[in-house]
Write a structure and sequence with these properties.
- Keywords: Iron, Iron-sulfur, Metal-binding.
- One of its GO terms (molecular function) is hydro-lyase activity.
- This is Benzoyl-CoA reductase/2-hydroxyglutaryl-CoA dehydratase subunit, BcrC/BadD/HgdB.
- The structure is a single chain.
- By secondary structure, the chain is an alpha/beta fold.
- The protein has a domain at about 5-160: Rossmann fold, CATH 3.40.50.11890.
- Helix content is about 55%, strand content about 10%.
- It contains 17 helices and 8 strands.
- Strands 2-1-3-4 form a 4-stranded parallel sheet, sandwiched between helices.
Length: about 375
Amino acid sequence: MNDFPSIFNEFSEARRNGFIRVKELKNKGHNVVGVFCTYTPMEIIYASGAYPVGLCGMSDEAIPDAEKHLPKNLCPLIKSSYGFAVSEKCPYTYFSDLLIGETTCDGKKKMYEYLGEIKPMHVMHLPQGADREHAVKVWKDEMIHLKEVLEKKFNVEITDEKLRESIKARNKERELLREFYSLGKLNPPAIKGRDMYKVLEGTGFTFDKEEQNQRIRAMIDDIKAKYDAEGSAISKEDKRILVTGCPIGGVMDKVIGTIEENGGVVVCFENCGGVKEKARLVDETKDPYDALAEKYINIPCSVMCNNNGRLELLDSLIDEYQIDGVIDITLQACHTYNLEVKRVKDYVTTVKNTPCMGLETDYSQSDIGQIKTRIAAFIEML
């Protein structure tokens, strides 16, 4: 049977190990596309023969470089992403032939204008609501426009057949990852949240998806077999926590680590790197652009108005994962998620009768003492 901690660490190293792999891809003449958001239709990129890779900054190392051009009171994810690009400290940005962004938050879409001075940049104009029929049409038109941009940039033809194949492959990956993170539904869970997140995040930096899927399939089977034979190493007394809110790549250790060192275990990540994008598959029976537009426009991000889909998703997840408490993580100056904290807390506490805590932070370590105190008190209260 596999050594689980070793496997989890392999996925956590995927981002660093991918630096070498992306250089090898470029040396072989392959195209690389840098992306920033779950609204990016990866299927179209794959259908062009290119390899997508995530460019969101995950540390404060390059923020001083960003603040030479960007305001200090800006979301750390935006500053980190731009800082790594402008300083050429990120190999993924350096080797990208094209960057793709979407008009999600105001900070990102203005930052993309600066990135366009560094690299070829294509910005997709995302409708700000999914509850109107014309929004799907607008987003479909944007996807067709992206197809045309990729075809011209890489001198390829993206046929419907290639796109359908790409859709099937991405759905297969989503279904496998859904099965993996559903291990958190077990009580007690089979794995800790930190290990779960290492795998989910690592898949964004693996380029051989067949090999990745085989490894995840084997991991799921081994974890289930060990759980059935030996039970879980996690105490049933640990409080089951659902994490929602902003992308947490830059704060994972100090927040998730603190939760799991103080009597909690994260069994579900609702945010971008977890359930949110994978909750809905692309309909394989429809016109591929209609299907992609419907799938992606319905991702319940805080940039949407209204964003009732987030509450609906939280409602079902709290029940499915037997949640004891919800922690809503927001990054400083992320206005859309900060403005949803009250709505989420009101819904979770009154409708679901589940304790909920809002936690605002950034990529620095300056607030680690305060975070430990607040999280420990929250979990003790549960």
